[in-house]
Amino acid sequence: MDKLESSLITVVIPYFNQANLIESVLLQHLNQSLPPHEIIVVDDGSTDDGIKRIKNLQNKYSTIRIERIKKNMGVNAAINRGLSLVRSPFVKISACDDLVEPNLLEISVSILIQHPQAAFSFSFPGEYFPKTGKKYAFPLNLSRRPLYLSPSELVSILRKRCFTFPSNSCVFRTAALRDVGLFRAYLELGADWFACFAMAFRYGICFLPQNLTWFCIRKDSYSATGLKDKKRQLETLRQILDLILEPQFRELKYCFKKSAVIYEYSFHTLIFLLKNHQYYSLLSFKLFTRLIIRGTWSYIRRTLSINRRQKINVLRNWIYGETL
Parallel, antiparallel, or unpaired for β 213-216 and 99-100? Predict the structure, then answer.
């Protein structure tokens, strides 16, 4: 393959009062084996000295662009503002506390060029703890080689084993992301979940069997605090289910139902579905049993150390075997 050009990829980073992190994440992307054409930092009404630090780097790297929002609008609104400015065919969205491997953009863009029908690429989920610096990988035993999965192949695999797409590992085709409506701000933590599955079921995805990004585990993070609020989570679930039933996503309803995929796997979700008859058309025996199994696991998971979770992940992959 010919040498890739930086004009192929843009990075969008939503920023809000994380001055101690912003320089590190910028340098990680600036030093990629395939440097991005542009890094758009969307300042979501910050009040710290982070912008000053960004401008210092901007004096050295002309690829950094700052887009400012006067009033804090939330992470999804900030991401969408950045996405509205993207002109490259591919885009990576990074949080300020993400860790990314130096070949992330090159590997991701390469496979998306090989498979022009794919909406995005994704790799193994990985977690890291900033206090200790330790990283923990959770491989998906789907394939030993990079590959493209069509919507029908993906539905078939998801029926057999349940997984999601770690959005911090995804590199998106810009046009596909815009086609599904970007990240709907009102969906909060479910915005990237819905966008990823809508794109995957519409276009298919590329899988990369390696760890290319690491998700930061912090008790005070946006995701950690949001997941604890069950009322907000159920409201997000309701809004996602309403979206799936909308005419614009009618052709995707079959994929969501057939694959038994839903935003949250918990007993709360099961009770919610049984109480709301308007969603019965999305129910299936597969989803019913999966909610019970995964709901039980969610309680057990809280009592386990991360090392035990890793061992269970290895055992689960061994039971499933290599899918493809």
Answer: antiparallel
What are the extents of the domains in the chain?
A: 97-320
Tokens 């009040």 appear where? Answer: 47
Question: How many angstroms separate the CA atoms of 304 and 297, rounded?
Answer: 11
* Sequence-distant (≥ 6) Cβ neighbours of residue 76 within 8 angstroms: 183, 184, 185, 187, 188, 191
pLDDT tens for the chain, 324 residues: list them: 456 776 899 999 999 999 889 999 999 999 999 999 999 999 999 999 889 999 999 999 999 999 999 888 899 999 999 999 999 999 999 999 999 999 999 999 999 999 999 999 999 888 988 888 888 888 888 888 999 999 999 999 999 888 889 899 999 999 999 999 999 999 999 999 999 999 999 999 999 999 999 898 876 655 545 456 678 889 999 999 999 999 988 889 999 999 999 998 888 888 889 999 999 999 999 999 988 988 786 767 667 677 777 666 666 655 555 555
Closest CA to 7 of 35, 33, 30, 28: 35
Q: Which helix (H) or strand (E) holds 240?
A: helix 230-244
Secondary structure (3-state) at 137 = strand
Place of tokens 């997000």: 236
Global pTM value: 0.87
How far, in Å, are 146, 153, 254 from residue 258 at the CA level?
Answer: 25, 12, 6
Tell me which residue of 62, 63, 67 sits closest to 79, measured CA to CA: 67
Phi, psi of 303 (to 5 degrees): -90, -5
166, 213 in Cβ contact below 8 A?
yes
